[in-house]
């Protein structure tokens, strides 16, 4: 990936060139990788597993910090629930979130995008039924309790930290996450985002100070073992890459 010839602000240009196929230990995990928004079994990860995850999530100017202690995870709980509360009180945020959820299987198949209701542990139901229930389930109390349980029973919380706040590091943080997620999948470890602490500039700074992070926290991910969840449907590559 080259950034020498900078694109206009707000855009990132990726130059692709032909290359021979190269085998990768993580390639076969691409089809199995998914986000698991559920509670984990709380079993700790071994030192070798933690090192593999940390290494996979390390790149050019991006590192992965793995939080395993109870005090550090409680700090994450505090900042996730504060961020969740602010988001769920924002009508525009809740309206957009509702638009992205595919409440029933037919809607998921038709759109092949968005967040499947089944991927969040809910049964398939028509939007006219699930919509009113969504308003009840998206209240701050139940939502925050679910986030807190998920974080507390996670084996670790990964925070991807960039050295600099610029497009190069934003893209690199995304690439590091993909490798981290694939490595977790290879280890039989589930993962899911809890990004509320980093989705607002002021809250991101407070989160960094609370965890004494040197750099910009870009992504926050729960890691742990537990049951798999259904995946959200996605469009074929040919439909989105021209």
Word description of this protein:
The longest helix is centred in the C-terminal third of the chain and has 20 residues, at 167-186. The mean pLDDT is 89. This protein has helices spanning 47-56, 70-88, 91-100, 105-111, 127-137, 140-152, 167-186, 201-210, 237-240; strands at residues 62-67, 101-102, 115-116, 156-162, 190-193, 216-224. It has nine helices and six strands, in the order αβααβαβααβαβαβα. The strands form two sheets. The protein has a four-stranded antiparallel beta sheet, with helices on both faces. With 242 residues, the chain is an alpha+beta fold. Helix 2 (70-88) runs antiparallel to helix 6. Helices cover 43% and strands 12% of the residues. The radius of gyration is 19 Å and the shape is globular.
Strand order of the largest sheet: 1-4-6-5
Radius of gyration, whole Å = 19 Å
Tell me how many strands there are.
Answer: 6
Q: Low-confidence stretches at least 5 residues in length (pLDDT < 50)?
A: none
Mean pLDDT: 89
Largest sheet: 4 strands, antiparallel
Q: Beta fraction of the residues?
A: 5-15%
Order of helices and strands: HEHHEHEHHEHEHEH
Query: What does the overall shape look like?
Result: globular
Into which percent range does the helicity of residues fall?
40-55%
Give a nutshell description of this structure:
With 242 residues, this protein is of the alpha+beta class.
Topology:
Blueprint: H1 47-56, E1 62-67, H2 70-88, H3 91-100, E2 101-102, H4 105-111, E3 115-116, H5 127-137, H6 140-152, E4 156-162, H7 167-186, E5 190-193, H8 201-210, E6 216-224, H9 237-240
Helix pairs in contact: 1-7, 2-6
């Amino acid at each position: 990936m080259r950034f020498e010839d900078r694109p206009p602000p707000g855009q990132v240009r990726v130059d692709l060139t032909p290359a021979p196929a190269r085998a990768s230990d993580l390639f076969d995990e691409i089809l199995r990788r998914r986000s698991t928004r559920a509670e984990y079994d709380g079993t700790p990860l071994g030192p070798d597993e933690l090192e593999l995850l940390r290494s996979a999530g390390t790149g050019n100017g991006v590192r992965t910090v793995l939080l395993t202690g109870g005090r550090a995870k409680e700090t994450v709980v505090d900042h996730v629930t504060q961020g969740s509360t602010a988001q769920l009180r924002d009508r525009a945020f809740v309206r957009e979130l509702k638009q992205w959820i595919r409440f029933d299987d037919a809607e998921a198949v038709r759109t092949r995008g968005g967040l499947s209701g089944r991927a969040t542990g809910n049964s398939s139901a028509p939007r006219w039924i699930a919509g009113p229930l969504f308003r009840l389930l998206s209240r701050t109390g139940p939502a925050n309790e679910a986030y807190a349980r998920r974080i507390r029973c996670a084996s670790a919380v990964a925070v991807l930290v960039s050295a600099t706040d610029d497009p190069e590091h934003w893209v690199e943080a995304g690439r590091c996450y993909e490798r981290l997620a694939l490595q977790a999948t290879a280890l039989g470890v589930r993962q899911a985002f809890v990004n509320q602490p980093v989705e607002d500039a002021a809250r991101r700074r407070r989160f960094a100070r609370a965890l004494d992070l040197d750099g910009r926290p870009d992504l926050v991910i729960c890691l742990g073992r537990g049951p798999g969840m259904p995946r959200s449907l996605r469009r074929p590559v040919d439909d989105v890459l021209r």
